[in-house]
Design brief:
Chain B: This is Ras-related protein RSR1. Chain B: Its EC number is 3.6.5.2. Chain B: Keywords: Cell membrane, GTP-binding, Hydrolase, Lipoprotein, Membrane, Methylation, Nucleotide-binding, Prenylation. Chain B: It is found in: Cell membrane. The complex is a heterodimer of chains A (about 775) and B (about 220). Chain A is α+β, with helices and mostly antiparallel strands. Helix content of chain A is about 60%, strand content about 5%. Chain A is built from 28 helices and ten strands. Chain A is globular. In chain B, helix 3 links the parallel strand 4 and strand 5. The N and C termini of chain B lie far apart (about 35 Å). Helices cover about 30% and strands about 20% of the residues of chain B. The chains are: A alpha+beta (about 775), B alpha/beta (about 220). Chains A and B meet through helix 2, helix 8, helix 10, helix 14 and helix 15 of A and helix 1, strand 2 and helix 3 of B.
Chain lengths: ~775, ~220
Amino acid sequence: MSVMLQTPSRASTGSTTSFHPLSRQNTMSSYEGSRSTRQSKRYSMSALYMSMSANDSDLIIEDELARAQKVLRDLKTKISSQSKKNFVLEKDVRYLDSRIALLIQNRMALEEQNEVASHLEDATDIQEGAFPNDDKTQKYGNLLFLLQSEPRHIAHLCRLVTMAEIDSLLQTVMFTIYGNQYESREEHLLLTMFQSVLTYQFDNTPEYSSLLRANTPVSRMMTTYTRRGPGQSFLKSVLADRINSLIELKDLDLEINPLKVYERMIEEAEAKDPESPEAMLPKGITQEEAAENPKVQEIINPRLTMLTEIANGFLETIIDGLEETPYGIRWICKQIRSLTKRKYPDANDQIICTLIGSFFFLRFINPAIVTPKSYMLIDGTPADKPRKTLTYVAKMLQNLANKPSYAKEPYMAKLQPFIHANKDKVNRFMLELCEVQDFYETLEMDNYVALSKKDLQLDITLNEIYAMHGLLEKHAGELYKDENSHLAIIMSELGTAPPQVPRKENRVINLPLFSRWETAIDDLTAALDITQEEVFFMEAKSIFVQILRTIPANSSVARRPLRLERIADAAATSKNDAVMVRKGIRAMELLSQLQELKVVDKSDQFSLLRDEVEQELQHLGSLKEVVMSETIKLEEVYKTIRDHNAYLVSQLDTYKSYLHNVRSQSEGKTRKQQKQQVLGPYKFTHQQLEKEGVIQKSNVPDNRRANIYFNFTSPLPGTFVISLHYKGRNRGLLELDLKLDDLLEMQKDNQDELDLEYVQFNVPKVLALLNKRFARKKGW
Amino acid sequence: MMRTYGFQPCREFHIVVLGTGGVGKSCLTAQFVHNEWIESYDPTIEDSYRTQVAVDGRQVILEILDTAGTEQFVAMRDLYMKAGQGFLLVFSITSQASLDELATLREEIIRIKDDENIPIVMVGNKADLLDQRAVDRAKAFTISQQWNAPYYEASARTRTNVDEVFIDLCRQMLRRDDSGQLDDDDGARNGSGYGYGQGKQEDGHGPMKKKRRRKRKGDHKCIIM
């Protein structure tokens, strides 16, 4: 199913257009057989008319499709803005992760503590604001329009900035300037930027063996790009189930390194019976010797079979997901292919596939398999054994894409049958990934459409604008040497870049974008090499579709076969609807003009036009279903990223509390501690905690669970006592003193289990609970 | 051929090879362990090697973890760093950016190990590609001095200084081991092997535990081939 991944409708999200290009499926072959340039221009033209008339906002179509589209559009906007928020939050949490670690180790000076604290306090939502004057708003609106619509400037900038500067630049580019992740114009402009940077890299890498290997602006762009909505939801739909079912098998050991197997075998034997022959085996043998041991082979052989089965399963879903692969990802694969062919004319398919694999598998699929938690595919960190299995799976997949050298790990050669069996299939798959259409022909048009709609705007923060301004200024010598270029003119008018403002003064600005160098829509027909007849034809089609979508489907006018004259007439004479009347009159005019130009023929009921209108309507009908199922999918995506957001926020809260606690303790030495109030006890039943996931394992027999309860008390900030009670008994069965430090440290070390003898708590969940329950006014 | 060891169990050390993509981490490691030059384009996700070497007449078992240089695998780094006792920081002398990235890696190691004197060797690989040199030897050496780590220029292709970098790292680890510098958490785990990511229990440094700091005596050197 290609629903959510096909390129989105071209008309901008701001309009209620109904146009949905038929042939924009990303499965279209890029070879012959696709539509001609001219035809694509007609489609674009049609989109233009649709969007223009819709933009008049005096004709708002209110059918089910329009409503469904609106829901979908809102959802997409939410996903775009939420994923930006998460990206920013993640950065904060990462920063604090490292700081808190130092703090836990008591290695942070007081000033630094204060600095971290201020960082935390600022990590709230940025308020909205505006530039002090219209002039600035206008000039920055011009600048951002130029940057957005001419991606070459940013592409060039990406090559000039240092690796230290690139992260914040990319954040602005991917989540703000082209932040509307489901809008084709922005997506296509972003991809154009990719292409320019990729081309540069191909041109400047001497040998292909080092291509796409280093961490460069391109690779950083790829990482950030895969973090956008479409990439995330693809990974989730293709990998999440397989990974989750695998990590449930915590004890499934699929180690095939003979040395490790050998050692573990001895260890286990020693534990069981130190006198057994296995326990007496010599230690410290070589890998080859271990591999020859028949017992080791006996253990490894079935594991090889299982690994192969598991990897086959992953491969199958990935290959089946061809049509679901985001357009942008596939298009990048296509660029890699064509750049490789251009630079190395002798390159065979194998080399091309190797390079595609170094993007698709190495940078997109495999990182998600190996570290699924950081891709929001699973909640917890996988246990050691599943983690190892996932690593093997990723290695096997990577070996399919590249030429594996068993010089590294000779025992991997045992998995050669998997490689042989799938190599051709995977190469075919990777070449098929490249079979997507280009968008250049429509991009120009998209830009015109965007121009014609006066509602282009960007939500961007002051600091993002100033940072961008500063970077452009810094590289002025390279970016705009020609002082008559548009960029140079705008930059000289803007003057010197203002410094970054403190976080709490940062504001989100709703910046209207527009060009100072307007292109008149009327010039389009000439520029596009489209005849007047075609323009009339498109407009007529568009108007009839609009009329038909507005009138009730069961009215006599809408009966089939469509009688266009009658429909125009009905619209023109409709009561109390001036817009309809206007549309009707225009439709009649167009019909007669087309008749005069001999494009359509009244005697055959304008069948040429009628059939196209009918086709469009049918397409819109199926479009509704497409829109609905896309909505369902995206709702799930939205939920995932919201959950992730909640996790990030709670993580920040925990850090905040901890820090307050540390600081109040160090203050407490000099000042009397302010009200040392004991909080709690709060009582929780076994059932409650189990439901919330705090209890992850319980040894309490089912029939006794109802009698078990827990008390949580906080005698001091940052200190907690958890006690376990049995109904009817005075004394608790067990009492545990906990320091927040310890919990944080356990979390940091990925130790998720907190053992209470009878039950096992989940550390992150305990933290969340304490956080919620014991939040003192200022921290804990 | 069966090797047996005397009463004294062999020391076992965990080495982690880090550096950005394409600098030749795997080539160095495979040359060292298997005496083989890898020609093919084969990006690493995670490879582990085990080998035994003699260092100043003492047998040492090395468990070497060769890591992914691809930045997308960054989430795995923490785990590696926790498990490692000695680190090879590799860059390519043909790329300034690859050297720049080492600073972040080093900071992360020191943060995670909570130890500024953790054994590190800095390696400028691809020294045979003289015509493509982009990093000044003196500049790299200055950085290595600031880090208090020895610097080698090596070539996995010509097998130059390959053994030397690993042996130097072993010496550093042995020296710490001898002088009792290793805390339990990263102490020599003799005999039985363990997988990376295991042995977490020993890893916790209590909040109050202060690591002893030690100035390494002036053994900075720039090894020129």
